[in-house]
Description:
The structure is a single chain. By secondary structure, the chain is α+β, with helices and mostly antiparallel strands. The chain has helices spanning 15-28, 72-86, 95-102, 104-113, 127-137, 162-173, 231-241, 271-278, 282-295; strands spanning 6-9, 33-34, 39-42, 47-50, 53-54, 60-63, 90-92, 121-124, 139-143, 154-157, 179-183, 190-197, 200-208, 223-226, 248-256, 259-265. It has a five-stranded antiparallel beta sheet. It has a four-stranded parallel beta sheet with strand order 2-1-6-7, sandwiched between helices. A hairpin with a 2-residue loop joins strand 12 (190-197) and strand 13. Helix 1 (15-28) crosses helix 9 (282-295), helix 2 (72-86) runs antiparallel to helix 3 (95-102) and helix 5 packs across helix 6. The protein is globular.
Amino acid sequence: MTELKIGVVGIPGKWSTEILADELEARTGFRCVIDMADVVLDLKSRSLSAGNHNLCGFDGLIIKKISQEYSPTTLDRLDLLRIAEAAGVRVFSKTRSIFSLVNRLSCTLTLSDAGIPMPATCITESIDEAALAVQRFGTSVFKPLFSTKARGMTLIEAQSDGDRLRQDIAAFKAENPVMYLQKKVNLSGRDLGMVFLAGEYLGTYARVAKEGSWNTTIHDGGRYEAFTPEPSLIDLARRAQAPFDLDFTTVDVGLTDEGPVVFEVSAFGGFKGALEGASIDAASLYASYAIEKARS
Length: 296
């Protein structure tokens, strides 16, 4: 046992949060799961606390999940953790790295700047321009800027009735003033999660869609299975995650008729898919990595 104090920022009771805390406890004798809803920042003393724990006195914090669903509040919570970073606490991954991923648009622009192939994409506040993009793309996936596991995503098809098309778009815009839409690509019911620890490739799993579902997420009935990628695909995923400087992540890749595309780089990465689909014990590997870095 060591005297290291590494806490897990996550959702109490959730499997990925608890298994990571278990792995840390087994190695250090210390266990602490931090719900950001309980965190208090006192700027006068520059203290950051959760219950009886002074987070600025920790050796490390692993951000497994900072909120149940992405929203602008997620960015506020990340801002709070900057105080711990400034006090010398090693945060996995760095708050600035996660900031660039929580907002879908920010992630997309970084991937585009790096020359990473993505589905045809349009971002606009104009219903008319969005309608033109849908007509160009055929079928489009409208995606909230803050969402995970396909929550809030909407399929809108091109149609001859322009008024009906604009009505469908307006319904999405009512909740999403800045509209992000991508051409729906043919994935043959499967996409990939490619797992990286500190930039090193660990393995790949596939997410297979439930029959009749247009997306592959487990949230909507999909399942995990093993997948062995070509070296060129591994290189693509490695290049996609590199600009973000993450300690742990999963790169979401689709295999289309026109070649592979990257949908996004995960701010936190998935443990269950790695374990069930690729036999990667990501929680164990991540805990060992964090301990090594916290000691250095």
